[in-house]
Design goal:
Elements: E1 5-8, H1 37-48, H2 50-65, H3 69-93, H4 100-108, H5 110-147, H6 150-153, H7 159-178, H8 181-212, H9 234-248, H10 253-256, H11 267-294, H12 312-343, H13 345-357, H14 376-396, H15 398-406, H16 408-426, H17 435-463, E2 473-474, E3 477-478, H18 479-501, H19 503-506, E4 518-521
Length: 523
Amino acid sequence: MTDTATRPRAGTGSKADGTAPDDGVRGKGLGGNSVGLLGSAVIGVSTVAPVYCLTSTLGSTAGEVGSRMPAVFLAGFLPMLLVAFAYRELNKAVPDCGTSFTWTVKAFGPHVGWMCGWGLVIATVIVLSNLAGVATSYFWLLAGQLTGSDLVAALDGDKAVHIVTCLALIGAATAISYRGMTTTKGVQYALVGIQLVVLALFVVMALRAAHSGSFAGHLGFSWSWLNPFEVKSFASFSACLSLSIFMYWGWDTCLTANEETIGSEKTPGRAALIAMVVLVGSYLTTAVAAQMAVGSGATGLGLANPDTSDNVFAALAGPVMGEGLGILLFVAVLASAAASLQTTFIPVARTVLAMATYEALPASYARVHDRFRTPGRATVVAGVATAVFYTVMTLVSEHVLVDTIYALGLMICFYYALTAFACAWFFRGDLTRSLRDALFKGAFPVLGGVLLTAVFGKTLYDMWDPAYGSGSSVLGVGSVFVIGVGLLLLGVVIMLVMRRRSPAFFRGEILTAGTPALVVDEP
């Protein structure tokens, strides 16, 4: 493998001879120039799984805040956008596939950086398990719709069939990710295209139904729907805000593929912003159209009906789109979950690869496949870990599985907020150079980090209550709190073990902290 080519960045502390100071950034051997701007943006949208997020959150959000549901989606977009600016600026300086891990190490040192990387990895493994389960359920639900057989649809309720199908989907997603970004990109064009086309069709038909007043409870559009200050209950707003933030999680996959992207300094950051705009546009138009068509009531087709709020599209598919076209919504949800399952392997595998490359994890995880130029071992281990976790949790306690998914928001806020603060500290020497630097490298990331820290604290407080999540508790403390905090503490334990095995990294000798010094380009 050829060594990494480096070049200094203007005004960032280059040596007198024109070379950049050695700050420890290393090449990984990944396949460079595999993905362009469009492919990177598509991967970012795919990882978020917009159609799945909408069908599972429209109802619960409407149940909490009523017709102000679109405002909550808009409010959740703000901290994500601010953090996206931080990712963009950090990627320009250090386009490393370790992203949050690498950047927080360089800003705050190895211990904080290791925990930030752990937060990303464990959150991704949890969501992979959830996505595999969702894709399995929709696979059998769609099969039942296509065959017109309730018996086929009911196969998802057979635990053995469900687990076997889930393992097959995990295996397929792992195999596609193992073969590299070119294969991943081709699959995602099709799956994301299906999602967005069907979603656009649903919006058009929902608006037509609203205009004709086809359903009881339909509403006329009001700009107050987009005003978060119209939400009367702060408790309801904060609970939904946490859920809304989860709906945008995954756009940073664009950045973890930066070493495989054409124009690694600028393209991933631009792709992330494009993905964010596509997501917020999809969420707002769908939320407004659905609410205009059926309203946000708790009866009939109303979005807040507790009998259908967990899967809104299943209830609205036939009435809004007709029995013939309605099945396309089931296809779109399955495509959404399957696409996200496959692309979510990208951030976990590349973060583990980076951590191993910098000796923060065992060296065996730093291996890159000779032909496909992918982190083969890290990808396979992520797939095996997902399969084992989901199988064990399904067999032992589905309540624990549900509570683990509820704890996911804690991990997301944890590593996003750390990355946002890392941006401001990393570029602290640039903040007085121009207004642009002050805003995009300092003010915006810090504000995003503060907002996410507030959500982290509020979520942590709510998790203490046993009623949060499945309703189970440990010694009177909510299970979600125990699992969320327990997973972070597990990271501390593993970090201490690795500190004994790899003292050089934790002494700051491998990846040095400091101000921006160079850009790393794959040859």
